[in-house]
Amino acid sequence: MQIDSGQLATFAAIIEEGSFDAAARRLNVTPSAVSQRMKALESGIGQVLVRRTKPCTATEAGQALIRLARQVSLLETEALATVRGAADGERVPIAVNADSLAGWFLPALTALPAEMAVYFDLRAEDQDHSAELLRDGTVLAAVTADPQAVQGCRVQRLGKMRYHAVAAPAYVEKWFAGRPLAEALAEAPMIVFNRKDTLQHRFLRSVSRRRLDPPAHYVPSTGPYIEAIRAGLGWGMAESYYLERGGLVKIDGGRPVDVPLYWQHWKLESRVLDALTTAVRQAAANGLS
């Protein structure tokens, strides 16, 4: 069978917008038209492609079509730009870990030529999990800690982010003064970015050689996370950059945690992806170890 491009675009809009009604508004058609297109696409494919949840998500069968839809959309936009001599603009979804987004990554986006008219849809995701967004078709490219290329993708090493266990001076005096580091870490409250963040526990294992589970505060935003450490709420893992700004001291005893980062993107002959990859590699060369 041949897949209808309008039905494919409608399917992508449902997944990106999260509902049939939102997809209808984006496509400037009625919700009934969206439902009819999806019914026709699923009937032709012979499988359910959308989970009718809030938000709507792609089924396992639908994930392959989401990847196709985004690839077709990008290549179609670039082809029309070549014919017309001007681009209408393409939305490019990218997964980036929060620390990269707060640090070295954004200069890569501003380095792209203005005539490309690219609009970015950035998804903040832990580097240990961002490759999943490539697998399910959510993003075209990702900054990830996974060195193994996702099927259909290219992978390039970017460098590494170095994290230190840090705390406020008064907090160090209260919890760590005169005590063995492993003993203090077993009890001292820590700051964790979110429940996907494993950096603190990686550091704990490097120090104690056993599993420690001290009390934890969850602060899922980069700025407030660092401020929570400065305020003495707990210790946490932070890049050297924050030590240079003052107010924090190392407690890691010379045991930093290094996180290698990689750039993965779909294998497409795309001017946008090629330019973005060049810009990301340059930004990483300037901002990573």
- Strand-pairing-aware structural class: alpha/beta
Mean pLDDT: 91
Q: Could you describe the largest sheet, including whether it forms a barrel?
A: 7 strands, mixed
So how many helices? 13
* First and last CA, distance: 49 Å
Unreliable residue stretches: none
Structural account:
With 289 residues, this protein is an alpha/beta fold. It contains 13 helices and eleven strands. The strands form three sheets. Strands 3, 4, 5, 6, 9, 10 and 11 form a seven-stranded mixed β-sheet that branches. The protein has a two-stranded antiparallel ribbon with strand order 1-2. A two-stranded parallel ribbon has the order 7-8. Helix 10 links the parallel strand 7 and strand 8.
Task: Name its key features.
single chain, alpha/beta
Q: SSE layout and pairings?
A:
Layout: H1 5-17, H2 20-27, H3 31-45, E1 50-51, E2 57-58, H4 60-84, E3 90-96, H5 98-102, H6 106-110, E4 118-124, H7 131-135, E5 141-144, E6 153-167, H8 169-175, H9 181-185, E7 190-192, H10 199-208, E8 216-218, H11 222-230, E9 236-239, H12 240-244, E10 249-250, E11 257-266, H13 271-287
Parallel strand pairs: 3-4, 3-5, 7-8
Antiparallel strand pairs: 1-2, 5-11, 6-9, 6-10, 6-11
